[in-house]
Every structure is written in structure tokens, then in C-alpha cells.
From TrEMBL:
Gene designation: R1A1-elementORF2_14
Domain of life from the UniProt record: Eukaryota
Protein name: Reverse transcriptase zinc-binding domain-containing protein
């Protein structure tokens, strides 16, 4: 088993793929964190995140708030559109936490899910117009 894990780690460390996820999980681990459809978009920086959308669909990476490119850090920690959700769900010291620390907090994870769900609903509404 150790040889398999070592091979996997070597492949993961040297790959050019999944680097956003690698930033959170540089060491492979068999422990599971509790993700779901919405949380996985934040972990992988894929899905409805503007920077990812711009790479896939040649759209603007700029967040609809207009203050910066929409990456996972902007969405979770900075975007003024989500200030009320952060206030309701995130601990008061959230700005000092890493994304992984924040996602380890059940209430904060619920807030991140709420943000991503609203983002998906907005994208779906736009596609249906």
C-alpha cells in the first residue's frame, strides 16, 4: 500500500492538473472531508467560478461586483455580494483562516454552500433567458 501511495503522491506533486486543489491538499490523504456539489466547486475552483468559466467559455473572469477577478478566494473571503452570508455563517475571525480551516467549520461550510447555490441559480437563470 505504501508503494501505491508514494506513486500517487509523486504523480500528484508533479502534475500540471488540479493545481487549485493541490494548493489545499498538497499531500494525498485517504481521509475524506465532507464535500458536496457546491463545496467541491470551491475546492477545485471549477464550476460557476468566474475564472474557471473564463477559461472554459471565453467569458469575462471579472466578478459581477466589479472589484476583481472571480476566484474562490474572492468569492469566499472578499466579495461584497456575500457579506450578509459571511456575517450570518462565518466566525468573526474568518479573514484570518485558510480556506480549508473555514471549510472545516460546519456553520461556515453551510454559508459557503449557500453562496455557491445562489451563484449556480444565477448562472442557470442567465442561461434560460
Amino acid at each position: 500500500m505504501t508503494e501505491t501511495l508514494d506513486t500517487w503522491q509523486q504523480s500528484w506533486s508533479s502534475s500540471s492538473k488540479g493545481r487549485d486543489t493541490f494548493q489545499l491538499f498538497p499531500k494525498i490523504n485517504l481521509k475524506r472531508i465532507h464535500g458536496n456539489f457546491y463545496i467541491n466547486q470551491v475546492i477545485t475552483a471549477h464550476g460557476v467560478i468566474g475564472l474557471y468559466q473564463s477559461r472554459c467559455f471565453n467569458t469575462s473572469p471579472v466578478c459581477s461586483c466589479g472589484t476583481s477577478d472571480e476566484d474562490r478566494s474572492h468569492i469566499v473571503f472578499q466579495c461584497p455580494q456575500w457579506a450578509n452570508i459571511r456575517k450570518q455563517f462565518f466566525p468573526s475571525n474568518f479573514i484570518n483562516l485558510t480556506l480549508l480551516q473555514l471549510l472545516s467549520n460546519k456553520k461556515a461550510r453551510t454559508g459557503v454552500e449557500a453562496i455557491m447555490k445562489i451563484k449556480l441559480e444565477k448562472v442557470m437563470k442567465t442561461l434560460n433567458e
